[in-house]
Amino acid sequence: MHDYQAPEGLLKDKVILVTGASDGIGRAAAIEYARLGASVILLARDQNKLAQVYDGIEELNAPQPAMIPLDLAIAGPEQYQMLAGMIEREFGHLDGILHNAALLGPITPLEQYEDGTWDQVMAVNLRAPFLLTQALLPLLRKADHASVIFTSSSVGRVGRAYWGAYAVSKAGLESLCQIWAQELGQLTRIRFNCINPGATRTAMRKNAYPAENPENLRRPEAILGLYTYLMGADSLHVQGLSLDAQPDL
Ligand SMILES: NC(=O)c1ccc[n+]([C@@H]2O[C@H](COP(=O)([O-])OP(=O)(O)OC[C@H]3O[C@@H](n4cnc5c(N)ncnc54)[C@H](OP(=O)(O)O)[C@@H]3O)[C@@H](O)[C@H]2O)c1
């Protein structure tokens, strides 16, 4: 699955929301989904960076994307309902969500972890994927088949000292994904799965490991096999799993 080669047109006529689409893995995945034929809805805070991704997609002659500048740390059910309304008007349905946006927060002992920072990290990494999925369910139900992907981490599988709210939020995402899959997997045509990208050359990784040589890490563009596999029709039977984009690490 991690070495999946997506056939041309895999995501033709699909509508896919990507959070954290302005940088790193989310940007690469959004561009790849668009290249494979999807109309991509790009969500992040930084409008300028989003606009660059938007322009890059237009240059591919891919379907016209949409841009949603939104801060997931402060957004709540009202904003997500407005987003659902916008997607309904523009596209009529939704075929996929890649929940990818995340905050790292400080690498620090729990004893010193500040409550405000804790809340912010949990809001972006766990509360937003929960509320966004909830708000967008009616649109996902309208799709022939829909795929919701949550982005986990190795520290979400087993807790790691000093990774604080980030690790707890990723463990929560694993659980959230399993619960959605159990509750709706049999009743709907929506599948819910987690991806652990593994060490990847991005700004977040640089923040977490400043002394590491980024040249030793794969670029986001090189780890997308699993991202395209789980979004397309070849994975219709895959439900409630947590998978590695780089199982060789
Ligand atoms: N890179 C790795 O080695 C690695 C390893 C394991 C897991 N992951 C996971 O993979 C995913 C992508 O990570 P990455 O390394 O690509 O990170 P990144 O380069 O730091 O990108 C993070 C993205 O999230 C967006 N974002 C952050 N805070 C946001 C907020 N409050 N509201 C909306 N958007 C927000 C950022 O956009 P704006 O700044 O424009 O808002 C950016 O587009 C994350 O879930 C991360 O936890 C990464």
Question: Could you please describe the fold and organization of this structure?
Answer:
- The structure is a single chain.
- The protein is an alpha/beta fold and 249 residues long.
- It has a single domain, classed as NAD(P)-binding Rossmann-like Domain (Rossmann fold, 3-Layer(aba) Sandwich), CATH 3.40.50.
- Helices cover 42% and strands 14% of the residues.
- The chain has a 7-stranded parallel sheet with strand order 3-2-1-4-5-6-7, with helices on both faces.
- Helix 2 links the parallel strand 2 and strand 3.
- Helix 4 runs parallel beside helix 6.
- The longest helix is centred in the middle third of the chain and has 27 residues.
- Bound molecules: NADP nicotinamide-adenine-dinucleotide phosphate.
- The site of NADP nicotinamide-adenine-dinucleotide phosphate (NAP) has 27 residues, from helix 1 and helix 7.
